[in-house]
Amino acid sequence: MSGARERVTAARVADEFSRAAKILVRHFNERLGEHGVSTPRSRVVVEVARSQPVRVTELALAVGITQGTASSLVDALVRDGMLERHAGEDDRRSVFLRVTPQGAALARDWTAGYELAAEELFSPLTAEQLSALVDILKVLTADETSAAGD
Q: What residue ranges define each of the domains in the chain, with the CATH number in brackets?
């Protein structure tokens, strides 16, 4: 039965997806490492640049990390001059994050590196395959996405 397709199970899909995810993460980490930054730090700076002003709790949700991890990363990024904390205009106790000019420049560089890495990784796929993959991933993440928006 060399020409027959083997039966695809959900477990097989999960295994292939997990293997692909590990390759994706490793590739992105290598590319970001070329810029001297870790993936978590770059994701935080890029998200703040995209969403500013943003609270730490909103940032943690957007990036998919705990609030404690977000706070630790923010502390380090403030120390490194990439982020700034600002008091809220309506409530001075509220703290919002913004990128510094240095952070904004690095966010642009990291985003360009991320986009290049994505192009490299997904280059074997046709435009139709990429579109189908996006549609599939949207279905798989729909519950998570709607729960995060609540």
A: 10-122 (1.10.10.10)
